[in-house]
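step 3/5: co-fold with adenosine-5'-triphosphate
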Amino acid sequence: AADKIDTIVSLSKRRGFVYSCSEIYGGQKAAWDYGPLGVELKENLKRQWWRYMVTSREDVVGIDSSVILAPEVWVASGHVATFSDPLTECTSCHKRYRADHLEEAYEEKHGKPPVNGLADLNCPNCGNKGTFTEPKQFSGLLSTHLGPTQDSGSVAYLRPETAQGIFTNFGQVLQTSRKKPPFGIAQMGKSFRNEITPGNFIFRTREFEQMEMEFFVKPGEDEQWQEYWMEQRWNWYTGLGMREENMRWFEHPQEKLSHYSKRTADIEYRFRFGGSEWGELEGVANRTDYDLKAHSKASGTELHYFDQEKGERYTPYVIEPAAGVGRSLLAFLLDAYNEDEAPNAKGVMEKRAVMRLDPRLAPVKVAVLPLSRNPQLSPKAKGLAADLRQNWNIEFDDAGAIGRRYRRQDEIGTPFCVTVDFDTLEDNAVTVRERDTMKQERVSLDQIQGYLGSRLLG
Ligand code: ATP
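step 4/5: write tokens
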């Protein structure tokens, strides 16, 4: 339902996933901070991406480049000239929009683009029709000044994508890693865009994290590699439990492709924001040899590959799966959130909120709960929590009724609750409760590490 997003926003704040930034000063618009649970979920997500895309493969290596690159990079890449969005303003209520977003929302609703462009559209804010100004291009680059002077010579840009740090290091990675095409270079990190209309919680912000991989292939093999990576990326989300009914492909029409792209297909998720049902989760683009050629020309350093066996030299084509950390995190939260029923202390069924996150993503892996606050149970449970903490992120909670404590863990997606009770003192075993089925099992303490380890995976 459309209000699911509101549920997630308030749960995020209440439980410590995501807070609004600088809230004590009234908040910084459209900026968000990750709390104790959010940062764990975010790190787990990034770790899963890195494993899947880099360390589990022999043909991909990683780098971590600077956020501020030489300004020449952004001239050569085409960003200084073309990285801009069409800005329009409603002349009635003075609200600003991206013209392309307004037209896309119209098309999604009506199944066809507006015949007369913006003139056909109602302002989403005040409802007036045909009140938009002629769109003006607005640069998406965020700039700053380096050093003590603030003139044009000191301008530097915060990267709007992590990809360029990969292209500029192409030659060095090729040499030091001794890889040859087809091979990839991956990077995760912050990117910055001066978005006109940030919003929809963490979906669109001016500061965000990306996970990108540039896969370098022989020209002519690019189309099949794009198919390959599209399939891989789809499988990454579904492999971590995202439901296919909430995902779809969006193929960019030829006339709307970015300046470097031969083909781009996006994985979209059904975010169900008011106004638009679907939103981009990740783009898989064929960037051709555009970037390597542009940097070769502008820098004077040849960024190509020489195949010694065949004696041929070529500039690789590039397939780029580019994902956003915040958007994935939001999609996984929306997808995992569920309401079902569980028996309360009196055995009566009550509503329960449960976050069915894959155990690999769950911020807390195990909660250790002494049945009651007691001088014998508490130390035993604390000792167990300390042992388990060597391997996983553990919560210890001894406050309140056991049912209430289970609910608190269900709501944040903790896969297992381990209860230490009076029998534990006799049989040296604990009760393990699984989140989704709520089934309970007695497990001996000398087997608990192995029991949890085999169920929590990586
Ligand atoms: P959009 O059309 O939504 O502005 P885009 O096509 O410009 O996105 P890309 O340049 O393909 O986005 O960036 C790759 C990924 O980075 C996106 O799929 C998204 O997950 C993430 N991303 C891009 N811009 C933002 C942003 N402003 N806030 C959060 N994530 C972003």
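step 5/5: annotate
The mean pLDDT is 95.
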